Amino acid sequence: MKNAVIYDAIRSPRGRAKDTGGLHELTPQALLQQLYQALGERTGLDPARVGDVILGCATQHGEQAGNIAKNSTLYAGWPASVPGMTINRYCSSGIDSVALAALKVQAGQVDTAIGGGVEMMSRVPMLADDARVFKDPAYAARCQMLMMGNGADLVATLYGVSREQADALAASSQQRAAHAREAGYFSSIVPITREDGSQCAQDECIRPETTVAGLAAMEPAFAKAGAMGVDDYQLARHSALSAVNHIHTAGNSPAMADGASLVLVAAEGTLDARPRARIVASNTVAADPTQVLSGCVEAVRALLAQEKLSAADVDLFEVHEAFAAISVMGMRELDIAEDRYNVNGGVIALGHPMGATGGMMLGTLLDELERRDLQRGIVSAAGAAGSGSAILIERLN
User: Fold this and answer.
1) pTM (2 decimals)?
2) In angstroms, rounded to a whole number, what is the distance separating the alpha carbons of residues 195 and 118?
3) Fold of 4-124+255-277
4) How many C-beta neighbours within 10 Å does residue 108 have?
5) 3-state secondary structure of 380
6) Burial of 1 (0-12, 13-18, 19+ CB in 10 A)
7) Helical H segments across 8-119, by residue range
């Protein structure tokens, strides 16, 4: 089996998912075009050598439909010989895309592949694809597909995560992200040029003015959906509970965002550029669908067991901050100290362009391992219905 190494991991800034956001005027294809160009400039990559482009995209509708992995490479002027595949495992799609790219390289099917993802939530809103499992309650129950916020509230209830703990986690995420942005830690960012020649060069969703007191004043966001039958459905499957504690608000939930990411994966020695890290292992798990989001924690647990490692053997973790309770529970369950977990903030602060987030998190992890001269890191994200995916990497000196 060949070694799959990461030659580069880049991303756009995260733009606010509003028509006033810094990336809104760009189509997803136009956004990706700038990243494809930057990847070539940074690594000397000849696009004709790329054996596959695999991109995550959660809402494949409108501008993001029609296999955006393929049509974006054609839009960018890449050779027609480059294949493309678009995948959807919701919020873990970006991690799954990189894992698939690595598996293709390891199997010898291709020498060079690209993973990553794109989500322009200001142009293609979440749920714009009109999936029946998210609009028909009876059908959703049959398919065991619940909305993410309700799953997060159930996790908070099952694991005893309080509103105060969730708000403290969210405030810390904002503070860490603001510090990292100001200190220039996000070196994987590629500034994006708009049509008027101006640039979007920094993440826009961070709210450094956030305080615990301000968060405490916000109303729960998912109690109404719970009262419409979701709580009863979850409680029927968790008979020890008498009620679901609705603690999540707009302030301790992920911020919607626009963005894209690319990760260049190849067999070691294939390219002239210096590889940055080796992909050691990856996995996907499926946990309790009523919790929706706990898979990102279970994927880390399973990956550590698979590789016969403890959490103490891993220098840094980037775990999908899929609502505050998930991170509070994750650190507790996996015995990970706060100074090794999402050290530059998570998606509550930074923003969550769903299909792109996994690739963005991987780039952030690699940047920080290099900045601190550390070796080993795990990135993980929740999918939906309890699924989760994770990747273990090791830096190459």
Assistant:
1) 0.98
2) 19
3) Peroxisomal Thiolase; Chain A, domain 1 (3.40.47)
4) 10
5) strand
6) exposed
7) 28-43, 68-75, 93-106
What CA–CA distance (Å, rounded) separates 213 from 114? 43
Q: Which of 253, 256, 252, 265 has its CA nearest to residue 359? A: 265
Q: 50 pLDDT band (50/70/90 cuts)?
A: very high
Quick one: pLDDT at residue 339?
97
How much is the pLDDT for 1?
86
Identity of the residue numbered 28: P
For the chain, domain boundaries: 4-124+255-277
Those residues whose C-beta lies under 8 Å from the C-beta of residue 53, and which sit 6 or more positions away, are 69, 70, 72, 73, 82, 83, 84, 85, 113, 114
Residue among 98, 117, 156 nearest 389 (CA): 98
What does DSSP say about strands 316-319 and 376-382: parallel, antiparallel, or unpaired?
Answer: parallel
Q: Which residue has the tokens 């597909």?
A: 145
Span 327-377, pLDDT tens digits: 999 999 999 999 999 999 999 999 999 999 999 999 999 999 999 999 999
CA distance linking residue 324 with residue 259, whole number of Å: 22
For residue 397, pLDDT beyond 80: no
